[in-house]
Amino acid sequence: LLGKGKWRASRRRIIWQDNQQKYRAIDNCRTSNNNEAATQWGSLITTPADSAMRIILRLADILDKPICPLPQLLLGCEDMDDAYRSIPTCPAHLGYSVVAQRDPVNGVMVYSIFYAHLFGQTAAVNNFNRVPAFISAIARRATAITAWHFFDDYAVIESKTRGELQGGQEV
User: Fold this and answer.
1) End-to-end Cα distance, the chain
2) Strand, helix or coil at 2?
């Protein structure tokens, strides 16, 4: 399909994530030297994790009084499911999106081409983060709301009366 000498497989391993109660595929693009094929000119721009609380405290300071009545708040983090898998791979780069893993039933190596970014590709982080950065910019400009992202996580603040977030922490 890709042609002789025009692809390089990354070894895949599967790990169990207790906190999310699911399996996650990790593709080792470093030892296959696939990450060496990526050239990146930009760097990540992220928002500090405590931005939500800073905004609430700054608003109270501007109003020169506590925000009352302040409901009991839950601060949570919502993770985008399969974030990197939502970004397509350029067809010319599919040779770097080949994954090899051992079939657990018959023990043979199985090779697959992924048409999306792999969890393990260095460029996947920068490429993916263009999407939430763009969405946050549109939200700020079009609706004048405070919006930000942190990689593939979104901070969520809600009142305890509305229900509890998955893994939410009381503020």
Assistant:
1) 54
2) coil
Residue 147 has pLDDT above 50, yes or no: yes
Cα atoms in the Cβ-side hemisphere of radius 13 Å centred on 167: 10
The answer to whether residues 35 and 140 touch, using CB atoms and an 8 Å cutoff, is: no
**pLDDT digits over 31-49, tens only?**
888 888 888 777 777 777 6
* Cα 45-49-50 angle, rounded to 5 deg: 130
Mean pLDDT of the chain: 78
DSSP 139-171: HHHHH------BTTEEEEEEEGGG-PPTT-EE-
pTM: 0.62
